[in-house]
Write a structure and sequence with these properties.
Elements (H helix, E strand, L loop, with lengths): L1 H5 L6 H10 L7 H14 L4 H8 L3 H14 L18 H13 L10 H8 L3 H10 L18 H13 L5 E17 L18 E14 L5 E6 L4 H14 L5 E6 L8 H8 L4 E5 L10 H13 L7 H17 L10 H14 L17
Parallel strand pairs: 1-4, 4-5
Antiparallel strand pairs: 1-2, 2-3
Helix pairs in contact: 2-3, 3-5, 4-5, 7-8, 9-14
Length: about 375
């Protein structure tokens, strides 16, 4: 044993690479990383005493993991199975609970609760919760999704993303949309301010004082916003807003307009206006794909930072607050950085569709048992 303990270790290239990978483990595997460093240091030569001094460990610790590695190689560095109470829930019961969770509903609800499943399966609530947590099941949660039905979806995504990633020279790219029906809301009671240990509070009921619609155009290169509020949301107002853009953009630049196919944007009035201006180029986002329009990100900032908590006793006060927000934004504009390529977006949608496609009874079966 003494000879084996003092002999230098010979490592294969595969073992050396695996040990080096183990040394980079994070906090969850610090012990395993330390054992790998012990073996790598021993492989450089030297007695246990020298290796222990170099790593700041005890001599017996170095000797233990050197012996374990010599006997069982890399597998010897892992912890051995620990003793404990035997399992009380076998694999069959776990599978039955998972299948029941995924494929059935309780009689008086649309989804299972942990207590309801515990009563139906004869297991404890904590056991049901542990099994659900292990398999990533959260019956109480529900998310929404929306897939575009636009037949030209792929072409439009590539067109718009191409403008974001590689905008044309001697041109300005503007993302245009409307945030319609912004309500001027006044709370029925004064807001209670934030205090230590207590968030700000407001009454749930309110009084409406009218609405306004914000037309906005975001310059993707600079982050500046051209915005104007109108009382109504029609083609007439959109035409006036296009005049605002025309006056703000230098004459020597082409204008690439990214917008959706909303009815207000395609009336004869708007088509004639655009046809008379050859420097204007329209790029349409796909149906049900407002996430592709960067100006929606600006609308989210406006809502979160100004409108949601605002108190307005008139439409004029609401418009003034919106105009002030735009002015302050333009004083120090920061463009949004688009990071996803068209291929990345389309691949993500393809993965979503494949993952959520209806199962084929002839090719997909449960872990065990008949197809479902």
């Amino acid at each position: 044993m003494a000879v084996r303990q003092l002999a230098s270790l010979a490592l294969s290239d595969e073992e050396r690479a695996e040990l080096k990978a183990l040394t980079t483990r994070r906090k969850t595997a610090q012990a395993l990383a330390l054992r790998a460093r012990i073996v790598l240091t021993c492989a450089e030569g030297g007695q246990n005493k020298e290796v222990a001094a170099k790593l700041g460990l005890g001599r017996s610790t170095v000797g233990k993991w050197r012996r374990r590695f010599v006997e069982r190689r890399v597998d010897g560095l892992h912890d051995e199975a620990r003793s404990g109470a035997p399992r009380t829930v076998d694999d069959a019961r776990i599978e039955a609970l998972i299948v029941r969770t995924l494929e059935s509903c309780p009689e008086n609800a649309t989804h299972w609760s942990s207590r309801g499943m515990a009563k139906a399966s004869g297991l404890s609530v904590s056991t049901v919760q542990r099994i659900w947590r292990a398999f990533g099941l959260q019956p109480h949660r529900l998310e929404t999704f929306k897939l575009s039905t636009d037949p030209n979806f792929v072409a439009k995504v590539r067109d718009v993303v191409g403008l974001y990633v590689s905008p044309p020279e001697h041109a300005i790219v503007l993302c245009v949309d409307e945030k319609s029906q912004i309500q001027a809301l006044d709370r029925s009671q004064p807001m209670l301010p934030m205090r230590p240990g207590q968030p700000a509070r407001r009454s749930h009921d309110y009084t409406r004082h009218g609405t306004t619609s914000l037309f906005a155009a975001l310059d993707i290169a600079s982050g500046r916003v051209i915005g104007k509020c109108y009382g109504r949301h029609r083609a007439v107002e959109f035409r006036k807003f296009l005049d605002e853009i025309e006056a703000a953009v230098p004459r020597d630049l082409d204008v690439h307009l990214i917008m959706d196919n909303y009815a207000t944007h395609k009336t004869p009035l708007i088509r004639r206006w655009l046809a008379k201006r050859p420097r204007w180029h329209v790029h349409l986002t796909p149906t049900s794909s407002s996430w592709l329009n960067q100006v929606e990100r600006f609308f989210a900032l406006l809502t979160d930072k100004k409108i949601r908590r605002g108190i307005y006793r008139s439409v004029a006060a609401l418009r003034a607050d919106i105009a002030s927000f735009i002015d302050r934004h333009n004083a120090d504009p920061k463009p949004f950085r688009w990071t996803k390529s068209a291929d990345d977006i389309l691949a993500s949608i393809e993965r979503f569709c494949r993952y959520n496609a209806p199962p084929n009874p002839d090719s997909i079966s449960r872990t065990s048992g008949p197809p479902h």
